[in-house]
Amino acid sequence: MTIPTTRLGRTGLTVSRLCLGTMTFGFQTDEETSRVILDKAAAAGVNFLDTADVYPLGGGLPTAGRTEEIVGRWLKGKRDRFIVATKCVGRVGPNEWDQGASRKHILDAIDASLRRLGTDYVDLYQLHSDDRDTPIDETLEALDVVVRSGKARYIGVSNYLAYRLARALGRAEARGLTRFVSVQPRYALLFREIERELLPLAQEEGLGVIPYNPLAGGFLTGKHHRGDPTPGTRFTLGTAASNYQQRYWNERAFATVEKLQGLVAEAGQSLTTVAVAWVLANPAITSAIIGASRPDQLDATLAAGELALDPELKARLDEATAEYRRGDAPR
Fold it and tell me: Which end of the chain is more exposed for a tag (fewer CB within 10 A), N or C?
């Protein structure tokens, strides 16, 4: 298997069309299993890795940074073969300044991430969320320092509303500061709100789009059933459980998954594979972030990298999930 590659937005950087998300490493998934997952993705042609300083997901403050350490140990001796992305803004320490997008925190956070990753630079450094309490000019100035110092090659954002991203792009241009090259939003058949404003903005501005949750936290695998959330999944995972239950654990989502399962079964396909392929079929999308807590879970998602989604099936999937384009989720 060889995953196709593409350029990240209008940069010259080439990345695989599937990106391995690592947020399960170190809490839901032990280090030995994490390394097997990394090996399997790399063997399939995935050269793009995404992590964050607050990971692993669900672990909270006591485990923050553990995922970067696991990825860093795995990268030893092969750093030059991979595009590495990480993020800051989430709380990583006990002090009030151990979070956010202030100059102090960004400059502290990049050094800490590089130390844990065992590298002197990351390819893409992203704001994990929008810090409304810090002036955008202060944030952009700090990120400009990070890039000019060689600690990051490019910068991006995650979980940004379109108008806030547009304002940041405008301020960077007006002040001659390093410009964001990518955005990482939530996007799946069960969450399509970004199609209304964020994706058109990204296309107009030439931004790469690296969506997370293409399987809606595993909900689109079809393995969940009505009743109490499935133990051992993100819906019961530490500090992440309530967020994922709020997003997807409802009757509307269950009914939609049943409808989607019927559509893909008629086409002789796996809903897991088709759900990721559907995300990749949007021309605005650069690379979809796939994750796993077990190596075998990668089989169906990696297959999406080679699947050319039938236009008729895509149209039926679009129609079946049109209602998910409406709403105002903050992220």
Answer: N
pLDDT of residue 1: 67
Least Cα distance to 39 among 80, 78, 4 occurs for: 78
Tokens linked to 97: 């300044």
Instruction: For residue range 188-227, list pLDDT tens digits in order.
Output: 999 999 999 999 999 999 999 999 999 999 999 988 888 8
Task: With CA atoms as reference, report the closest residue to 274 among 286, 296, 259, 254.
Answer: 259
DSSP element (H, E) containing 72? helix 66-75
Q: If we measure between CA atoms, which residue out of 265, 264, 277, 279 comes closest to residue 303?
A: 277
Per-residue pLDDT tens over the stretch 296-329 = 999 999 999 999 999 999 999 999 999 999 988 8
CB atoms within 10 A of CB 316: 17
Residues 6+ apart with CB under 8 A from 152: 110, 121, 122, 123, 124, 125, 143, 146
User: Is 187 strand, coil or helix?
Assistant: coil
Quote the Cα angle for 328-202-81, to 5°.
115
With a cut of 90, say whether residue 129 has pLDDT above it. Answer: yes
CB-CB contact of 234 with 221 (8 Å) = no
| Full DSSP string of 24-38 | TBTTTB-HHHHHHHH
ω into 56 cis (within 30 of 0): yes
The tokens describing 29, both together, are: 């998934």
Query: In Å, what is the CA distance from 315 to each residue of 78, 115, 211, 274, 322?
Result: 41, 46, 20, 13, 10
What three-state secondary structure class fits 118?
Answer: coil
Catalytic residue among 55, 154, 212, 324: 55
Cross-strand bridge partners of residue 209: 183
Q: Tell me the pTM.
A: 0.96
Coarse DSSP helix, strand, coil percentages of the chain, rounded to the nearest 5 percent: 45, 15, 40
Q: Which two tokens stand for residue 136?
A: 């955008």
Is 55 a catalytic site residue? yes
Nearest to 3 by CA among 21, 22, 19, 16: 16
